[in-house]
Amino acid sequence: MDFTYTDDQKMLKEAARRFLAGACPNVEWYLEMDKDEKGFTQELWKGMAELGWMGILFPEEYGGIGGSMLDMVTLMEEMGYAALPGPYFSTVILGGCTILAAGSEAQKQEFLPKIAEGSLRVTLALSEPATTQFNPALITVKAKAEGEAWVINGIKLFVPDANVSDWMVVAARTAGKDTDRDGISLFLVETKAPGVGITLLKTVAGDKQCEVVFDKVKVPKTALLGELGKGFAAIERTLQIAAVAKCAEMLGGSNKVMEMAVAYAKERVQFGKPIGSFQAVQHLCANMKMAIEQSIYITYKAAWMIDQGMPEARKFAAVAKAWVSEAYKKVALIGHQIFGGTGYIVEHAMPIYSRRAKAGEYAFGSPNYHREIVAQELGL
Fold first, then answer.
1. Global pTM?
2. 193, burial (CB in 10 Å: exposed 0-12, middle 13-18, buried 19+)
C-alpha cells in the first residue's frame, strides 16, 4: 500500500487541524466540557456537519461523501490530536456504520441523510453488566414479539452518548443462549421511548457513558434492523471499523503528547542547560517517536485492508488495537516523566491526553482481548 496522503486527504487533514484548533481552544474549555452533561457545544457540532465530516463514510445516495476508511482515519487522527469531545464517534461510527451495514434500503434512506447533515444522533447499545470483560456476543437483553410489536427488557452499560442521542441501535437476544452469536437481533429504539431510562456515569476520561434500562420498551416490527437473529455480523463489522478508528484517534493523541513534551524539553532549563540536551531525556523522546511510527504503519495498514475488503482485516484490526493501545499509554507515561510534577496538575493539557489513553486502551476490547482474536486468526 501507498502510505502517502492523497491531495484530498491532505486538504482534509489541514482543514481539520485548522477547525479543531479554533473549536477546542484551551484546557479551560476541555474542563468545562468535562463538567457539562452534554460534553460538547452546538457550534462545534454544526461546524463539523458543515465540513461534511458526519457523512464521510456514507455513500452519496445517503447524503454522504463516499469516503474511504483511510479518509476516516486521517480525520480521526486530527480529532485525537485535538482531543475532540462529543458524540461524533458514537453517531457516525457506532450508530451510522451499523445502520449502513445492516439496515434496509428504507432505514438507510430514513436515518443516514439525517446523520450526515448533523440533525440526528444515534449510538450503539451493546455492552451489558453481566460481562466482566469485553465480549460483544454476550447479550442477555431480551426482545420478544408481541403482536405487531417487539418488547425489549434488560440493561445496557457504557452506552456512549446515550444522554444526547436521538436513537439507539440496541443489540437484543431473540433466540439462543446468552453467548451465542446466532440469535442476536438489532433494533432501532428512540431514546425518549416510554420505558427507556438513561443514567449518565462518571468516567476517567470525562466522556459521556451511560447505563440504559429497557423496561418493557415496545417498538414496532419495522424497528428490526437487518435479519432476525443475524445481527452479530453487523456488530462485528462495526467493531472492526471502530477499533481502527480508535487507533487513529489514539495516534493523534500520541503525536500531540510528543509535540508538547519535546517543546518542553527544549525550553525547560535545569543545571544551566535545556533538559532536552541530557541523554536520558533524549532517549525518552526517541522512544515516543518509535512507538508512534509503528502505530502509524499498523493503523493505516489495517484501514487499507478494510477498504480493500480483505479477510485479513479482522486480524490486522486486532493487531493494531492491541499495539496502539499500549503505545499510546507508553507515550503518555513518558510525557508525564518529561513534564514532571507540572504535567499532573488539572490545568495542564497532559492529564487530558493520559486519561484518554487509559480510556482508549479498553474501548472495544483490551489489548488482551485483541491478542485472543489474533491467536484465533493464527489457528490457535
1. 0.96
2. middle
**288-290-296 Cα angle (round to 5):** 105
Packing angle, helices 350-362 and 313-339, rounded to 10: 150
pLDDT at 27: 95
pLDDT cut 90: percent of the chain above it: 98
pLDDT band at 76 (very low <50, low <70, confident <90, very high): very high
Rounded to an integer, the average pLDDT of 169-188 is: 97
C-alpha to C-alpha distance for 60 and 206, rounded to whole angstroms: 34
Q: Per-residue b/e over 286-317, b at no fewer than 16 CB within 10 Å?
A: eebeebbeebbebbbbbbbbbbeeeeebbbbb
Q: b or e along 26-53 (b: 16 or more beta carbons within 10 Å of the residue's beta carbon)?
A: ebeebeebbeeebbbbeebbebbbeebb
Grid cell 446515550 in the structure block, residue: 162
The pLDDT of 46-61, averaged and rounded, is 97
d(CA 327, CA 325): 6
pLDDT in tens, 242-286: 999 999 999 999 999 999 999 999 999 999 999 999 999 999 999
Residue 178: Cβ-neighbour burial (10 angstroms; 0-12, 13-18, 19+): middle
Per-residue pLDDT of 207-228, as tens digits, reads 999 999 999 999 999 999 999 9
